[in-house]
Amino acid sequence: MESQVAEGNFEDAVLVRRVQAGEVHAFNALVIKYQDRVFNTCWRICGDHADAGELTQDVFMKAFQAIGKFHGKSAFYTWVFRIAVNQSLSWKRKQAKRRTVSLDAGLSDHDGSTKALKHTLASNSSDDPAASVLASEGDRLVTAALAQLDPDHQAVLVLRDIEGMDYQNIADILEVAVGTVKSRIYRGRMQLRTLLCESQSLPDASTTGGNVF
Predict the structure, then answer these.
(1) First vs last C-alpha separation in the chain
(2) Which pLDDT band holds residue 196 (cuts at 50, 70, 90)?
(3) 117 Cβ partners below 8 Å, 6+ apart?
(4) What CATH number does the domain containing 114 carry?
């Protein structure tokens, strides 16, 4: 796995150097490689397909415009995901002033990627009422509840439980300590479980003795 990551980083570095040398078309390969994951990250944070599409375009435009300043101190995907998260969180904060997202909004699971998050929340929670909620309406509810988290906790859950990134990568993307990442993940999952339980008028794990994870 590590060798695959290293190989991917090397390939990205070669493409970046080609773009910096004037081979603009080489950037297309980077876009093709990461556009789906960037879109998914933007969508999970902003909660709207159309807006996520626009954000994805903005992310790669900003990356292209700033690629001359990219010196390889981090992996390219870390850098581009940092742009994606920052753009999405900025969008979300602006939108929060204009509207609130209902937990009952009809958000669908775009690609089934909430399954990992649903599994994380439900694992080791057989005595937790939320487990039955996740089993029955998990995808729709998780997607909607995720949109209600505060931006910092939402971002770490998207990167960890949906994108499957490790703690260090998330820390690099968010530019915070690994300990901060772990703390936000824990608190984010607590918030998410509470939202899921409240949506079904169920007691949360903290009052029933159920596990959070």
Answers:
(1) 26
(2) confident
(3) 142, 146, 157, 161, 162, 192
(4) 1.10.10.10
pLDDT in tens, 104-160: 444 444 555 555 565 555 554 444 444 444 444 456 777 788 888 888 999 999 999
Q: What percentage of the chain reaches a pLDDT higher than 70?
A: 68
Q: Within this chain, do residues 20 and 76 fall inside the same structural domain, yes or no?
A: yes
Region 90-95: mean pLDDT is: 85
Note the pTM of the prediction, 2 decimals.
Answer: 0.72
The count of domains in the chain is 2
Residue 49 sits in the same domain as residue 143: no
Measured CA to CA, the distance from residue 91 to residue 87 in angstroms comes to 6
The CA distance from 46 to 73, in Å, is: 28
In this prediction, residue 126 carries a pLDDT of 46
Are 84 and 148 contained in the same domain?
A: no
What residue type is 25 in one-letter code? H
Tokens of 161: 């439980």
Query: What are the φ/ψ torsions at residue 128 (nearest 5 degrees)?
Result: -100, 125
Give the CA-trace dihedral at 85, 91, 92, 94, to 10 degrees. Answer: 140
Q: In this structure, are residues 130 and 118 in contact, taking their beta carbons and an 8 Å threshold?
A: no
Sequence-ordered strand ranges (E) for the chain: none
* 130 plus 44 within the same structural domain: no
Same domain? 95 vs 106: no
pLDDT recorded at residue 113: 57
> Range of 137's domain?
102-213
Q: Are residues 204 and 164 in the same domain?
A: yes
- Asked if residue 7 and residue 53 are part of one domain, the reply reads yes
